[in-house]
Amino acid sequence: MVEEQELVTALQTEAEKESAFRELVTQYKERLYWQIRNMVLDHDDADDVLQNTFIKIFRNINSFKGDSKLHTWMYRIAANESITFLNKKAKRNNVSMENVKDNALRNLESDVYFEGDQLQLQFQKAIATLPDRQRLIFTMKYFEDHTFEELSEILETSVGGLKSSYHIAVKKITEFIKTQDETL
Amino acid sequence: MKENKNISGFKTPENYFDDFEKRLFNRISEEKFPKSAGHKVPDGYFENLEDRVLKTVINSEKPTKIIPLFPKKYFGYAAAIAACLLIGFTLFNTKTDNSSLDSLQLAAIDTYIEDGNLNLDLYDLTSYIDDEDITDLNFENQQFSETTLENYLLENVDEEILINEQ
């Protein structure tokens, strides 16, 4: 695997840019995909957002100054792209963000690319009740196993704030599942 | 309870034990959550992703080919008609026309941007702004009322994070 610093240098050199970019996509495609997929839920939407994320990375790599690590910067772009996508989708369909999430969840039940059982579906429903930023923090920590320190760099928030948000998210999810179980 | 006779010299972060139960129970409830999200991808999706991404990136960089609305051979006629119209217009219409970019209503521009037609995000914007522009920015003259600011903060700020960061 090519070291990150070498990759940045190659990406900023016109002659090597394309091959370095290919290497970058190979290294990060899956990690970025899952981060995005956990936010947008639908595979085709995730594919769109992933492509947009890489286009943005390619276009802005020359202005990448190395103030943060390359992967941190990429995760941040993917996070912003996911939220921008959901907002745009809501605006385009002239509905609220809640509607977008509700529709995505409803589609999940018949989605051929969702193989979750009833519990996983309920879990997704619970996650969808969280505000965007909290949902981002929860999914990135829970499914992708980022440490709070990494998340703090990616989302430019303090570790304390992230921990608090995460714990509130866990609490909300637990309560949601409990209420659902009681009504069943 | 018996006090520890020997002191190890270790200490805990402030208030560590105060909310220990809270954190522990949180952890226990987390253990009950499903381990995976349940999503899957189409077969072979990741295998040719590099090619598709590169193709999209390269296509997005290429200037789009412009197909002329009027082929060159009609230019002569078009120019002649335009000249006639212009002369006619200047001769018979003495009214002044005030339409300019300045008269474009700010509200129309706002709606255009809010509708997402101006497809710029933070990364695009920063690529247009250099350090000098940033120092030139003057926030003091912004016309935000206190109510607008308050509404914005109420809607967009996560108080829990703020409280925690204090």
What is the secondary structure topology, with strand pairs?
The complex is a heterodimer of chains A (184) and B (166).
Chain A lengths: L3 H8 L5 H24 L2 H18 L9 H23 L4 H14 L7 H11 L3 H11 L5 H8 L3 H25 L1
Chain B lengths: L19 H12 L17 H13 L13 H18 L13 H9 L7 H7 L2 H6 L9 H11 L2 H7 L1
* Strand segment count of chain B: 0
CATH homologous superfamily caption of the largest domain in chain A? RNA polymerase sigma factor, region 2, helix turn helix motif
Helix-residue proportion of chain B: 40-55%
Residue fraction in strands of chain A: under 5%
Number of helices in the DSSP assignment of chain B: 8
Structural class of chain B: mainly alpha
Residue windows where pLDDT falls under 50 for at least 5 positions of chain B? none
Order of helix and strand elements from N to C terminus of chain B: HHHHHHHH
Largest sheet of chain B: none
Mean pLDDT of chain A: 90
* CA(first)-CA(last) distance of chain B: 35 Å
How much strand content do the residues of chain B show? under 5%
**Overall mean pLDDT of chain B:** 75
Alpha carbon gyration radius of chain A: 18 Å
Q: What low-confidence regions of chain A span 5 or more consecutive residues with pLDDT below 50?
A: none
**Per the principal axes of the C-alpha atoms, what is the gross shape of chain B?**
elongated
Q: Could you give a short account of the major beta sheet of chain A?
A: none
How many H/I helical runs of chain A? Answer: 9
- Give the oligomeric state: heterodimer
Helix content of chain A: over 70%
